[in-house]
Structures are given as C-alpha cells and as structure tokens.
Amino acid sequence: MRVVVEADGGSRGNPGTAGYGAVVLDADTGELLAERMGALGVTTNNVAEYRGLIAGLTAAAELGADEVEVRMDSKLVVEQMSGRWQIKHPGLRPLAAQAADLVRRFKSVKFNWIPRERNKRADALANRAMDGKPAPEEPASAAVATAARADSPAASAQSWAPPAGPATRLILVRHGETEYTARRLYSGRGEAQLTPRGLAQARAVASRVGPVAAVVTSHLSRCARTAELIAQAAGGVPVRVEPDLVECDFGKWEGLTFAEVNERWPEEMQAWLASPAVAPPGGESFDEVAVRVSRAVQRLREAYAGERVAVVTHVSPIKLVLREALDAGPGFLYRCYLDPAGMSTVDYWPDGGIAVRGVNETAHLADTG
Q1: Which of 122, 171, 184, 357 ranks highest by number of CB atoms within 10 Å?
Q2: Nearest to residue 250, comparing CAs of 222, 289, 220, 221?
Q3: Mean per-residue pLDDT, 235-242
Q4: Is a pLDDT exceeding 50 seen at residue 206?
C-alpha cells in the first residue's frame, strides 16, 4: 500500500504555544485516509515539526502502508531525515531517532520538501491544535484501509482476536524507598541507597514477583539491590544490567524539592511541565528517555521472547513503558503515581499485541510500614 504523508508543526513564539498536524493520503487516488493533530504546550517550531512527522508516520504504519512519500515544508526536517544535514540541536536528536525507528518499519520512505502553500491541510490541523479545537472525525476510508490490511502488525495490535503465540511478560518494579524518595527530592542519576524501609519493601516485592527467567535492572544501586533480592527469591536467576533503564537525568535539579526548583527556575519548570521535549537545565527530556527505554524494551522482547522477566527500574522509565503500552498522551506522565516497590505488568505478543495487566500493584507492601 502506497501513501503520502503531509506533516507540519508550528509554535506561536519560539518557543511558544505549539501544535502539530499530519494527514495520510492514498498515493494513487489522493483519498484522505487519516488525520492526526495534537497540542504540545510550550515548545519550539522544530520540535513541533518533528512531532507532526512522527504522528504521520505512525498513522501510516497503523494503516498498513509499506511505501511512504513524506511531504513537508520544513527544509530542516526533510534534509536531516534524508541524511544531508547534521542534527546539531540535542533536543531534536531523540525525535529524529524516533522518526528513524518508524521509517525502518516501511519498505521505502522518501522525503520531499514542498512550499507552505502546498501543505495547507497539515498546517490547518497544527493551527487547530494550537487553538485548542478538537480533532476532526476520522475519515471512514481509514477503517476500510485498516481492515483491508488486517494481516499487518499494526492492525493485529488493535484486533479483538485472541493473540497468537506466548506473550513476553515484563514485570516492571520500581526500586524500594531511598532517602531521596522519602523526602520527595528529584532523584535521577545520583546514587541513593535503600533505607531500612526500602529494603523491607524490596524483600516484599521479591516475594510477590514469582518465577522469572531473569531480572533486568538499571545499574544504580537502589535498583541493583532490589533486583538482587528478586533474583534470590526466584531461585538465583541471572541479573542483567541494562544501561538504557537508568532514571532521567534531572541535571541541576538533582537532590532538590519541587518547591526549590520552582523558586529558582520558574520559567524552565513551566516549560518542562508543558512538554516532554523540554529538559531540565543540564539534564534530559522525557522524550529522550522514551527513545532509550523503547530501545531497551525491544531488546528484552527479543532476548526473552515468551518468558516472564522482572525489570527493576525507576519512576520515569516505568511511566514511559506504560504510556507507550497504553498509547497514552504526554499528560499520563503527570497523572500516574508509582509507589516505591510498586509492581506493574505488561504483556507483549509476537503479532504486535500489547496488554497492560496491572499498574502500581502494592498489596505486598501492607506490612512494610
């Protein structure tokens, strides 16, 4: 199936209120197959353009397309995705990587620059998003196109049919309590040992996880110690360190409270809360974390296909795994609460199906104080 993706993004101010839009068209007939749009809070024009591209490619994959022509009026995005320009801005690299991962799903993808007047449909959707208006109704042809490609991975992921093959189950465990956790401090790449209560929580979740093929962990000691206890309870299964599961780098905010950060960096804090593409000063954005966490999940699905695996990590990586599994928006990151030593479970099937079995289960912590 050959499609055309027209994508755009914009911001009113740079950075400013931003949004993106994308349409997917049948390459042979020009029929509208899908429309995508979204508000991004406060971010830059280039970030919005990349988000439009990602939305368009995602929609094309969901429709089962195998050949894609991307048309954008952003010279920067077209040249960078074509490999002719370097991606110098660190905030754009994770978005370009996410787009490149999507490109690899298709048989072929071609990028073409078009003048703005020929990109009116995507531009109108981006402005609609910035205005806070609802998305237009999905074209009826989109459902027909998806049904016609029901054998595609994207289609089977949305199917009510029973999944094929054994699932790979990832049991996502947040580490036990640390001093930073108890004091509600930003705790990213710095070392923070488990408190006595945290050790009790780690032992409790270890007794709850059950049999697993392996335990995979962030290298930081609060996770490594929790992982060690889970591995022992599971009969001495191997423990594997996965660097991409490390917590978000909070930069200059490390070790501070929310109130302290909001007092010293009020504008940066508001921008960070408004968009996952924004990083704390000297730190890492949630979009950047999402790219590496998605990489890690894919490696685990390949290495432990059809098995149960305990994954011991931090708040941000777990939220990002759950957000992707639930196909949720950016707001999920701020509305999902995860307790120390809480447990969440996600199943992945070979046909692309995903099911979230549980989020932040804590019954095992009842006796830990």
Answers
A1: 122
A2: 289
A3: 96
A4: yes
Catalytic residue (one of 247, 254, 284, 288): 247
How far apart, in whole angstroms, are the C-alpha atoms of residue 82 and residue 76? Answer: 10
- CB atoms under 10 Å from CB of 224, counted, come to 16
Give the start-to-end residue ranges of the domains of the chain. Answer: 2-157, 168-365
Phi/psi-derived region of residue 61, left when phi > 0, alpha when psi is between -120 and 50, beta in every other case: alpha
175 is catalytic: yes
pLDDT surpasses 80 at 243 = yes
Residue 35, H or E segment:
strand 32-43
Cα(321)–Cα(83) distance, integer angstroms = 29
pLDDT at 157 over 50: no
- DSSP labels for 122-140? HHHHHHHHHTTPPPPPPPH
Burial-class residue 362 by CB neighbours within 10 Å (0-12, 13-18, 19+). middle
Give the pLDDT confidence score for residue 93 in this predicted structure: 87
Rounded to whole angstroms, the Cα distance separating 25 from 69 reads 10
**Domain range 168-365, CATH architecture:** 3-Layer(aba) Sandwich (3.40)
Does an H or E element contain 350, and which?
none
Is 3.30.420.10 the CATH number for 2-157? yes
Give 317-359 pLDDT, tens digit per residue.
Answer: 999 999 999 988 888 998 999 999 999 999 998 877 899 999 9
Torsion 25-27-29-30 (CA) sign: positive
- Alpha-carbon distance of 255 to 186, in angstroms, equals 5
User: From the candidates 6, 175, 284, 364, which is the catalytic residue?
Assistant: 175
* Residue 222 labelled as part of a binding site: yes
Is 164 buried (19+), middle (13-18) or exposed (0-12) by CB count in 10 A?
Answer: exposed
CA 314, CA 304: separation in Å to the nearest integer? 21
Using CA atoms, how far apart are residues 324 and 332, in angstroms rounded to an integer?
Answer: 10
Quick check: 304 and 214 in contact, CB under 8 A? yes
Confirm whether 6 is a catalytic residue.
no
Task: Answer whether residue 129 shows pLDDT above 60.
Answer: yes
8-state DSSP, 212: -
Which of 135, 114, 146 minimizes the C-alpha distance to 55?
A: 135
